[in-house]
Amino acid sequence: MQESYFWGPGQPTTSTTNNYAYITGKYTDGYYDCDANRLTQLGLMCEYLDPYSFADFEKACLLSPYPSATGYLSCFTLIRNAITFDTAQGKCTEFPGGFLARVNTVDMGTFISTALWAKTGLPPTMPLFNGLRRYSSQWYWMNPDGTKSTANTTSLPWDAGQPLTGDCALLGQNGLLKTGSCTTNQWYLCQYRNKLYEFNRGIADLKASPSVVMSETYNMSFRQCRQSCQNNGDCTSFSHSSSNNTCQLISGNSKATVAASGFNWYKPEL
User: Which residues constitute the signal peptide according to the record (predicted)?
Assistant: First the structure.
């Protein structure tokens, strides 16, 4: 179907030779068709598209003095300063709300390795600290203040034969994790979430299907539920019921939901 809203009155004509269109200050009510001869008598009006049109968050990220990339609703920065894990844990302060990156899928690891050190290089001797640390036999995502949340180990992007002994996970050149010591001096990877795009759409009468429920907690307000998801490295969305203050944290496929009266499902607005 041909769009017609921009044409002037009676336009376009039925002429088979009028293959062009023009607009002038005289004809402010739309475009008029014309032939090639008429076109040679007209001036030109040029339009230039900005090839790098970024939101403020993306622009700030890409202007970082460190190697940086935007994706997964986040800004990632590679800090080439070798320090211990405990020191690095509180060093992601370039933007508000920073933390050691939570690389929890193979796809995410591949994206980061391609977007960052495919161009800047990552020495094989300098795999990166991220937010993953082991206590006893359990892996946790560590927060800057030292608090932690349990990591979903079923989806972690471990390299072949991993994990082995070691209390920290290190992100290698291939975007996969291997174990190492938290007391060695390593470079590290920071993550800053774009708060403008987090959980600002609520869809009524939906909650998670059992296959993707990470946890279900009662007597939790909406704000507490949202914060709990934001603090959990494996949480991709959440459902909340205001009638009984039930909070569901959801991991993995964000489309795995079922009908549930009284619940609202919140996911990042992409």
Answer: none
Which residue type does 218 have? Y
CA distance 157 to 140: 14
Contact 197, 270 (CB under 8 A): yes
Please name each of the domains of the chain with its CATH number.
1-47 (no CATH), 56-193 (3.10.100.10), 198-267 (3.50.4.10)
Are the beta carbons of 78 and 120 closer than 8 angstroms?
yes
Is the pTM here over 0.90, yes or no?
Answer: no
Per-residue pLDDT tens digits for 187-218:
999 999 876 445 545 677 888 888 888 889 99
**265 vs 241: CA distance, rounded Å:** 9
| Structure-token pair, residue 124 | 């094989």
Lowest mean pLDDT, pick from 105-109, 132-136, 139-143, 169-173: 105-109
Nearest to 251 by CA among 240, 270, 269, 267: 267
- Is 179:163 a contact under the CB 8 Å cutoff? yes
Q: What is the dihedral of CA 163, 168, 169, 170, to 10 degrees?
A: -120
